[in-house]
Amino acid sequence: MTRAIIQGEKLRGEAKTARIPVKIKPQPNDQVLRKPAWIRAQFPGSAKVIELKKVLREKKLKTVCEEAACPNLGECFAKGTATFLVMGDICTRRCPFCDVAHGRPDALDEHEPQHLAETIAQMGLRYVVITSVNRDDLRDGGAQHIMRCVAATRAASPDIKIEILTPDFRGRTRQDALKILAQSPPDVFNHNLESVPRLYRQVRPGADYKVSLQLLRDVKTLMPGIPTKSGIMLGLGESTDEVVQTLKDMREYSIDMLTLGQYLQPGKHHLAVEKYYTPEEFKELKLVAESLGFSNVASGPMVRSSYHADLQADHIV
User: Fold this and answer.
1) In terms of Cα–Cα distance, which of 207, 216, 84, 188 is closest to 145?
2) Are residues 298 and 262 in contact, defined by beta-carbon separation less than 8 angstroms?
């Protein structure tokens, strides 16, 4: 008998992935691929990192850098930049590539938009990424809350550039959610496809490849002139042909900007790494993407969807 999930309880590891369609079988240690020499992350315990974490805790704010155990946390925090995670740190999805906890989220913090805006202004940021967990428990998927975060941030920092990295809003509320977000539009609209369509059932249970593509196309209709952005992780068992076809699909749906990065397994109860792509392979894929017409391509082993987002968007917004 499956026990009830308590509101606010964080489920990680096996407790998170036990009920997904494709079961995760932890690999024996001798079958786990060793990380190659080019997978390196900066030490996350510098004085600057500790200082920024203190500010975030004082304002009761979360970052996806921490919640998803991003390998670039040390580098980004040391520069005083972060990707802010709003609407809590518990996700209603169980994606087995992600280290963010699953469960029944707490109610939204109505003061979060103002706290976020105050923190960003205090940090003196010129470019910020605002992302969120999936909130399928909310009628609008959290669109109103994200819009309030954008509006408050602009009011406190009029010259700032804002990128939002959104959920898919479950498809059924997509148009309504985008109409809400268009009331205070971002400078860049980001939504990750994460993987190739063949692997969706195991990588993004509860999501739909075409729905995600259509979300990004609809942005062009409701928010003309706003660049769209998406990214995929490599190393989950996809073929090169599948990656290239996915890039072609992105361009067919008018996606402007692209990130390609190496998937790294957060723990033994997450999807295993099937392949480590070499820096040379990332360079080759970057050339393919550029030939397809993406306005900017960030491709490399340590690239993540919001890694160096300010530099990637610099010539566009």
Assistant:
1) 84
2) no
